[in-house]
Amino acid sequence: MSNNLPKVAWIGLGIMGSPMSENLIKAGYDVTGFTLEQDKLDRLAAAGGTVAASIAEAVRDADVVVTMVPASPQVEAIAYGADGILENAKSGALLVDMSSITPQTSVDLAKAAKDKGIRVLDAPVSGGEAGAIEAVLSIMVGGEQADFDEAKPLLDALGKTIVLCGPHGSGQTVKAANQLIVAVNIQACAEAVVFLEKSGVDLKAALDVLNGGLAGSTVLTRKKDNFLNRDFKPGFRIDLHHKDMGIVTDAARNVGAALPVGATVAQLVASLRAQGDGGLDHSALLRAVERLSGDQPK
User: Fold this and answer.
1) CB within 10 Å: which end of the chain, N or C, has fewer?
2) Which part of the chain is the 3-hydroxyisobutyrate dehydrogenase-like NAD-binding domain (predicted)?
């Protein structure tokens, strides 16, 4: 494809990465991808992307490298070392890490990359699988204004609300706050669902009217059917929300912010995971409330 859009390398093609990379291809970008699962590479090729056999091969000619992997250890694994991004990307490249990781990992990565002449933005997202597919993600960014301005057209192909929140690590801090709000919100909805059902109310009617008032939320809109149908196919896995609650409780402790309700919900997420529900969608917090209320989860 001959166009003047930057050449993109995409590392990490999971639930979020696959649809996001496809949206870039639809927007006319030349995307070369690498991930660990062959079926995801096949999917990228079918969508018009180029498949690389390694990280080094994927990033070699890229103007922009986008990474979307589960957590800090994976970001470090793909960024550092002889086979990693920093050793193999060209000087002057822009690394946009869209993973949700600790703010400190982002700060350290930006510092290490600077020595290689590589610029970094932390750009975690909110909106889940549906937001990724529909390209309406909220993207919170940390880094330099000039790098943000350069990345903005590309980010516009992936999301709707794109905001530079401050220096390196700021995107991750805002994402941590996002995950705090989402988890507490899902927990409140789950408690309401069990209360309503035990009271014999028509759950669908109740959730519809609640969502039309002050209790309404994007969380309730997106998760209403999960609750109604007990459909916990993961859009966002409990395992990942458990990781994120660890990030926000730890970061809050470091800055001296108290999160009394957040800490409680973090424990409820941890307990759900301990009961074997880590692979389910985070709306499965409903199962924890059912167990606490003396019911077998439906």
Assistant:
1) C
2) 169-288
d(CA 127, CA 219) in angstroms, rounded, equals: 9
* Residue pLDDT, tens place only, 252-291: 999 999 999 999 999 999 999 999 999 999 999 999 999 9
Q: Could you tell me the pTM of the whole model?
A: 0.93
* Gap between the Cα atoms of 234 and 188, Å rounded: 19
The long-range contacts involving 244-250, CB below 8 angstroms and separated by at least 24 positions, are 244/100, 244/175, 244/176, 244/179, 244/183, 245/179, 245/180, 245/183, 245/269, 245/270, 247/100, 247/101, 247/102, 247/172, 247/176, 247/179, 248/176, 248/177, 248/179, 248/180, 250/102
Residues that are catalytic: 175
Residue among 72, 60, 58 nearest 13 (CA):
58
pLDDT, tens digit, 9 for 90 and up, residues 161-208? 999 999 999 999 999 999 999 999 999 999 999 999 999 999 999 999
| Maximal C-alpha separation, the chain | 64
